[in-house]
């Protein structure tokens, strides 16, 4: 039983890899470089986690063409990253248009070619500030696309087990699975010390705090 | 009005670019290298056609990761290309798993980032020997994915105008639009003289013949 698991190296996708492993799958992990600022750090986290989770393969894939289309502060380094704020309206400028459809399509190609039965993606709809490609409807629509767009004898299930979980739930689950969070990376902005103020840092840090724990990652003092 | 147009450099996608132009769109063409054997020839056809059709941009995108997953004779050069035969059953081994979902996802990312309104893809369901990602249901499912997976204010239509046309219809349309078929390339096998026996050659050549015309491309003698 093979599962293809999207592994950025962040908190959620690392927990995901451990979860898929725990469910009895052999893991092929895919890591994507799409020109995000902190790719070097993310990649090194992904390698560490893939190794520790016992993945059979970590395929590193270059999607730098997404950079060429522009439109996101994650990939256009001239734009400033939106900081988290309670009053932020609309979709943060870190949104990379239709990114998850790209990632899931690649994962499905891999799963069909390698006779895998499952694709795992770590999106969650609660904290994610309205990215359209993180919504439950999006995952449902993608499952339908896989059903009609692969061979009739192919059956691939798209699992997004964190869809309705929040970061606290994920950390709680991850701790029970032994996820080494000190080796994961979430910050959108920095590669040495996490910035603490981008959306990714905000949600991660406050989730640890709300569990009465300290995030094992070092943060920049402000 | 911007349209993103998938342009392999073959007969169908070249006709497609001319059709989108004729409908009044400004064209951004995307060409993909996914390790297919005849990529060099296809790329040079795509450049020529993009120029002649007046495209504003031709973005060449490397998808060689599809090669690394294997499973197709188009990208695994140790496998022999299936020749066309009336008695062939099932899906030919030139099928690249879930390829069109990859191509359409990229095109949609490009369209959303560039504020385009349309994506054109030249799939047809008739001649294509049952590739699952060339079926009308696949295009419908992809349109639904775009509707839920892009910003609410984004409206992108997926056009597959050749879905229910055959190659004859396409050539007839293309001739009325002035498509220079001598600059297009379809063969899956060769880059100098078209082989004449792979599925792509078979369908192309017989379409010209059935219109009482000669394909302007040179074919290998057998």
Layout of secondary structure:
The structure is a homodimer of 222-residue chains.
Chain A lengths: L1 E5 L4 H12 L3 E8 L5 H14 L4 E6 L2 H5 L29 H15 L4 E3 L15 H14 L7 E3 L7 H11 L21 H12 L12
Parallel strand pairs in A: 1-2, 1-4, 2-3, 4-5
Helix pairs in contact in A: 1-6
Number of helices of chain A: 7
Largest interface chains and counts: A-B, 43 and 43 residues
- The appropriate CATH architecture of chain A is 3-Layer(aba) Sandwich
Q: Helical proportion of chain A?
A: 25-40%
C-alpha geometry of chain A = globular
Could you say what the CATH topology of chain A is called? Rossmann fold
What is the CATH superfamily of chain A?
HUPs
Q: Mean pLDDT across all residues of chain A, rounded? A: 90
Helix-and-strand structural type of chain A: alpha/beta
Strand proportion of chain A, as a percent range, falls in 5-15%
Biggest sheet details of chain A: 5 strands, parallel
Largest sheet: spatial strand order of chain A: 3-2-1-4-5
- For this structure, what is the CATH class of chain A? Alpha Beta
3D architecture notes:
2 copies of one chain form a homodimer. With 222 residues, chain A is α/β, with parallel strands linked by helices. The first copy, chain A, has one domain (2-179): 3-Layer(aba) Sandwich (Rossmann fold), CATH 3.40.50. In chain A, 37% of the residues lie in helices and 11% in strands. Chain A is built from 7 helices and 5 strands. Chain A has a 5-stranded parallel sheet, with helices on both faces. In chain A, helix 1 crosses helix 6 (167-177). The longest helix of chain A has 15 residues, at 99-113. Chain A is globular.
